[in-house]
Design brief:
Structural class: mainly beta
Radius of gyration: 16 Å
Shape: globular
Helix content: 10-25%
Pfam families: Cupin_5
Organism: Macrococcus carouselicus
Number of helices: 3
Protein name: Cupin domain-containing protein
């Protein structure tokens, strides 16, 4: 099923981890001439997580299938929290969740041989120019109290484009 989804939904590797395909980008623009929103399919699997990153827009996540997914967040004040995205609402999962702009976040599926398909809508629309992927060292210098989670969900190094 997972392999079929990757093929049929035309998912490709994302720089943060996982697979994605942009399904829609609004033709309507805001005052700054940015598209109002964009939407993607996003698939994660055991061992292929979304590493800690930040975007400049709100991102609304929708669970679509597979196993529950955990969103790991460090807010502007440095507080860490998790939210479980899935359909088992009796056990605290939620079928949709908003990650506020400027939040540093990662996501993962935790069990063996698990995968999760979600939809993500970003407003204003996602652009790679407003996307920042963090290394462990960058995050540890600001949030040493979260060392365990940072080492687990941040890349050991991040290649930056030469300027």
């Amino acid at each position: 099923m997972k392999a079929q989804l990757i093929e049929r939904l035309k998912l490709m590797p994302h720089p943060e981890g996982g697979y994605y395909h942009e399904t829609y980008r609004s033709k309507l623009k805001d005052r700054e001439e940015k598209a109002l929103f964009s939407s993607i399919y996003f698939l994660l699997e055991t061992g292929n997580i979304s590493h800690f990153h930040r975007i400049e827009s709100d991102e609304l996540w929708y669970f679509q299938g597979g196993d529950a997914l955990t969103i790991h967040m460090i807010d502007a004040a440095g507080s860490y929290q998790t939210v479980k995205l899935g359909l088992d609402v009796a056990n605290g999962e939620v079928p949709q969740f908003l990650v506020p702009k400027q939040t540093i976040f990662a996501s993962s599926v935790e069990g063996e041989s698990e995968w999760s398909l979600v939809g993500c809508m970003v407003s204003p629309a996602f652009t790679f120019e407003e996307f920042k992927l963090f290394s462990q060292d960058e995050l540890l210098s600001k949030y040493p109290e979260h060392e365990e989670v940072i080492r687990k969900y941040a890349l050991s190094s991040v290649e930056r484009p030469s300027e």
